[in-house]
Amino acid sequence: MPMEKFVQGLKLSELYYWKCVRPIIESHYEKLKYSCGLIGPGSEVLGFDTPMSRDHHWGPRLVLFLREKDYSTYRNKLSKILSHELPYQFMGYWTSFTKGNERGAERIQEKIASGPVSHFVDIVTPKYFFAEHLGFDPERKISILNWLTVPSQNLRILTEGKIFHDGLKVKNIQRRLKSYPKDIWLYLLSAQWSCLNQEVPFVGRCGEVGDELGAHVVTARVIKNLMRLCFLMERQYAPYSKWYGTGFSRLKCSKKLNPIFISALSEKNWKARQKILAKSYKLIGEMHNSLKITWAVHVKISQFHKRPFLTINASDFSCRIRNSIRNRKIKNLKAQIGSIDTYVDSVDVLVKKGLYKKLQQLYF
C-alpha cells in the first residue's frame, strides 16, 4: 500500500482529472463533448474514506461520460490513448489497477514500470451508468414505484461525489434525483412513523421477562428506525450499513440524539433504557413539528395500554402526515410499508436491480 500522506479520494481524483486526464483528452479530441467526475460506488464518493480505504477500489479513478452517438466511436480509442499516455504514478499512487478478484468487483492499485496502464477511468454513457444503479432511466419520468423501490444508498452515491467537467449536463440528472418528490417524501415519513409504532413497546416487554439480549436487539432496531426517520426529516438519503452511523453523525439532529442512542444501547436496566429512549422520542416528535408539514402534533410519551412500557403516539404522526398527501395514487397506496430500505436488509436485494425492481408488486 502507498505510504504517501493520505489525501481524500475525491480530491485525489479531481486533481488527477485536471492534471492528467483532461490534457490527454483535449490533446486528441479537443471538440469532444463529455462529462467527467467521480460518482457512484466508493466510500470516497461520500467523503467517508480513510487510509484503510486504499486497499481496494480506491485511487486515481474517474467516470468519463460520453454521448450515446459518440460512445461506439470514441470509447475504445480513448481507453487505449489513456492506457498509453497516463503516468504510472500520480501523487504517489499507482494509476494502474488489477482487473478484479474472483468476486469480480474489487480493483486494486498495481505497481508497473512498463507497458500500458490498466487505468480506472470508466467510460460510459449517462443513460447506461444511471440505469445500472437505479434500474430505470432518470431522464424520463420517474414513477412512484421507481422512487419507492430504489435503495436510498444508490440515490446517495449518485447525487454525491463531484462532476469536474460537465459538457453533457450530468449535474441536471443528479438534481432530478437529489431528493424525493414531496408526496413521496410524506408517504415515507408516514410509513416510518408507522414502522416505529410497531416495535417501541417491545423494548420494555423483552426486558420485563428478563430477555436482555432480545431487549438490546429491539433497542437497536428501534434506534435504526429513529435514525432513518431523521435522515428523512433532514431530506438526506441514508447510506448503507457500514456508513449508516457516520452518515447520521453529519445530520444536524445528531448532536443531541447521538449521546441518547449510545446511552440507551449501553444501559443494562430496561426501565432506565426505555426512559432514555423516551427522550429521543420527544426530540424527534418536536423535529416533526418544526417541519410544519402538518398541524402540530402533541408529543405524548405514555404507557403501552396499561403496561409499564413507554411509547410515543407514533400513529398520530403517521396519520396526520398521510392526510397531508395530495397525490391520489400515493395517498391510496394500500401498503403502508415505506421504501425498500424500511423492510429489506439483504445486500443481495439492495444491490441487484433485477431483484429490487420485483418488489414493486408489493405496493398494489
Features:
364 residues; alpha+beta; Beta Polymerase, domain 2; 52% helix
SSE blueprint:
Layout: H1 9-28, E1 34-38, H2 43-46, E2 62-66, H3 68-85, E3 89-90, E4 93-94, E5 121-124, H4 126-134, H5 144-149, H6 152-159, E6 162-166, H7 170-177, H8 182-199, H9 202-208, H10 212-233, H11 244-249, H12 254-266, H13 270-291, E7 301-304, E8 307-312, H14 314-323, H15 328-331, H16 340-343, H17 347-351, H18 353-356
Parallel strand pairs: 2-5
Antiparallel strand pairs: 1-2, 1-6, 3-4, 7-8
- Structural class comes to alpha+beta
Largest sheet: 4 strands, mixed
Rg for CA atoms: 24 Å
Say what the CATH topology of the largest domain is: Beta Polymerase, domain 2
CATH architecture descriptor name of the largest domain: 2-Layer Sandwich
Q: Could you characterize the architecture of this molecule?
A:
- The chain has 364 residues and is α+β, with helices and mostly antiparallel strands.
- It folds into two domains: 9-143 and 157-177, Beta Polymerase, domain 2; 182-333.
- It contains 18 helices and eight strands.
- A four-stranded mixed β-sheet has the order 5-2-1-6. The chain has a two-stranded antiparallel sheet with strand order 3-4. The chain has a two-stranded antiparallel sheet with strand order 7-8.
- α9 packs antiparallel against α10 (212-233), α9 runs antiparallel to α13 (270-291) and α12 (254-266) runs antiparallel to α13 (270-291).
- It is elongated, with a radius of gyration of 24 Å.
- The mean pLDDT is 93.
